[in-house]
Amino acid sequence: MAEGTFTIRDDGGGRTLALAGDWSSLTLGDNATELGDAMAGVTGKTRLDLTHIGHLDTAGAFAILRAVLPTLVPSPMPKDAERLFALVRPAVEEEVAAPQGMSRLTAFFARVGGAVVAVGDEALAATNFTGRLVIEIGQVLREPSKLRGVSLTHMMETAGVDALPIIMTMNFFIGAVVALVGTDLLKSLGMAVLTVQLIGVAMLREFAVLITGILLAGRSASSFAAQIGSMKMAQEVDAMQVIGVDPYEALVVPRVLAMLIMMPLLTFAAMIAGIVGGMIVCWAALGIGPIFFFERMHDTVAIRHFWVGIAKTPLLALLIAMAGCRHGLAVGGDVESLGARVTTAVVQSIFMIILFDAIFAIIFMKLNL
Questions:
Q1: How many CA atoms lie within 13 A of 147 on its CB side?
Q2: What pLDDT was estimated at residue 88?
Q3: d(C-alpha 365, C-alpha 369), whole Å
Q4: Are strands 5-10 and 14-23 parallel, antiparallel or unpaired?
Q5: For 317-352, how does the pLDDT look when each residue is reduced to its tens digit (9 = 90+)?
Q6: Nearest to 321 by CA among 136, 173, 146
Q7: Residue 11: which H helix or E strand, with range?
Q8: Fewest CB within 10 A of the end CB: N or C in the chain?
Q9: Is the dihedral of CA 46, 51, 57, 60 positive or negative?
Q10: Strand 45-56 to strand 5-10: parallel, antiparallel, or no bridges (unpaired)?
Q11: Using the 8-state DSSP alphabet, how is residue 72 labeled?
């Protein structure tokens, strides 16, 4: 290994920073400090000359970019070096944007401002993705031959059918818990029979669709983001574009349509499981048999509660699928980016599910439904 060296040449309109030797974590030594001191206070344009550079890793790229970023202009460089600089550039820009000398109050407002900008960028990216998805779905509806039936069926199985056991189990216990709480409260008021109505309304309107959406967000949104993100890391998405395959048509549309088809069916199964769980608790705690339970539910729980719950599922399915696919396509070239995007997809989809469920509750209340 040869220790890295640098030379600064003045070429009239600016300067050229010529680097030689190895710039890596093993050979960096004091070079980072010396380079930073040499470039401190420098104005004008700086170009990089990497003709004689040896081994370069992220530590070396970070040190170089940190020293020259304020005055750096695009320069021709090897593809490997270009990828390394692109990888470390966000970290260097973040450090430059938040200098060390700022007060705690200033740093706090800087972080708040950065978060606001990040939210705006995220909203813009989501809007762009939604527009592109609408165009792709429109093309598929206009030309059904573009729909990839095998991919759609596979996604319906993995994202829908395979999720059925956990969804029914969770909703069964949610229905049982609602029945236990209702039985304990209403029995003390002498209205234990109203537990049946409580179970029916709670499971049909809210809990079945909400629990199903949250489980699918944790299960399917993360799966979509991980699958597409892994393909992005392996450059399979780039390869698809090279051979003329639209990634949205091949990867996004089948997943979105699979969720749109399967979530209403899964929600219906969740409603049944939750009602059965509540019925068993009522049978054991109150002596309300299955026949009386369902007769009472038929008489007191209107069918509109079922349709209110089912009406929410298409939008929630879209939110889940779009979050997973969008963050999967946004994965960079490293594992850290993949993990961050998968986590963001799950958190974002759960947040949107709860937010829109609350919005739906207000709308249906205003409409007296």
A1: 17
A2: 80
A3: 6
A4: antiparallel
A5: 999 999 999 999 888 777 888 888 899 999 999 999
A6: 136
A7: none
A8: N
A9: negative
A10: unpaired
A11: B
